[in-house]
Amino acid sequence: MERNVIDTSESSQVKMPQSGIKNDTLFALYRTQLVSSLRQMTKQQSILSSLRKLEQYFCGHQPTQELARGFLLQYATMKPSTRRFYNRVVKEFMNWYGDAGRIDLNVPTPQDCSVSTQMIEKLLQAIRSKRTHKCSIERDSLLIELTLETGVTRGELANLRIKDIADHSILIRSSKPYECRTIPLPRALVARLRLYSIRKSADAKLFGLKSQSVSVKIYRFARKAKLKTFRLSILRHKYAIDLFEEGATVATVQQHLGHKNISSTKVYYDMSN
Q1: Which of 20, 93, 127, 212 has its CA 20 to 30 A from that of 226?
Q2: Is 169 helix (H, G, I), strand (E, B) or coil?
Q3: How far is the C-alpha of 239 from the C-alpha of 117, rounded, in Å?
């Protein structure tokens, strides 16, 4: 079990909001507590060095989950031990600060983006060969193929409605209207989606599944296809890499994936070159 960088108990946390505290004072306070909690000098120095980088990255702005994630994405293509180290340091700092929230510390690696046509075909074959609930074969196949064509997340798949399907595209909805995006779709896939949903009302959910149910289904089909490390997010990673290899700009891929922080998109750009 990994040891905490610093005591993150309630008594040691800075209570949010603390926007009145400047970053130099905030980090100085954290470093003081950190040094007193660590005995190994070499570990102290490496953590203090990473904290200086984090403070410089924040550039005077109040620490937020989005900034913390942007910082971590700089190390996405480095070796696993380096990524784990920075992940742990940033997570412990944000815990201490009181704004850990749901920071996504898992950044895509080249291995995550490595998926072959044969792997996808194995997954689809596992769906087609279901012995029960055969009426859901088309739905489950569309989950895979739509993700390949759009790079949507499991939550976005779950939230899709019939009315979001247009003649040549699909509307990906967000909780914030200004963050919704439209992604082109092949005509053949549009035709299949319309045929699949022909008896549903315009406001009905396209797949009628919760986001967690989507993940569980893909996990079970991957196990059946003997793809032990396969996850739905791998298809999103592949979609981003494919866009770059086809000549798309960083701005275009950012818009298609719905990234708020362009640093998230640049991870895929670096992998494609």
Answers
A1: 212
A2: strand
A3: 13
d(CA 31, CA 93): 10
- Token duo for residue 152: 């949507």
Name the CA dihedral angle for 149, 152, 156, 157, rounded to a multiple of 10 degrees.
40
**What is the mean pLDDT of each successive set of 10 residues along the chain, which is 273 residues long?**
43 47 87 77 81 88 82 73 86 83 59 79 94 92 96 93 96 74 96 95 95 89 90 89 93 91 83 80
Per the CATH hierarchy, to which homologous superfamily does domain 117-272 belong?
A: Intergrase catalytic core (1.10.443.10)
Report the distance separating Cα 158 and Cα 210, nearest Å: 5
CA-to-CA distance for 252 and 119, rounded, in angstroms?
27
Q: How far is CA 207 from CA 112, 118, 137, 216, in A?
A: 26, 25, 12, 14
In the numeric block, which tokens belong to residue 205? 């959910």
At residue 184, φ and ψ (nearest 5 deg) are -65, 150
Task: Tell me phi and psi for residue 181, to 5 degrees.
Answer: -145, 155
Domains of the chain, residue spans: 10-97, 117-272
pTM of the model: 0.66
Determine the 3-state secondary structure of 273 from DSSP: coil
Q: Is 151 left (phi over 0), alpha (psi -120 to 50) or beta?
A: left
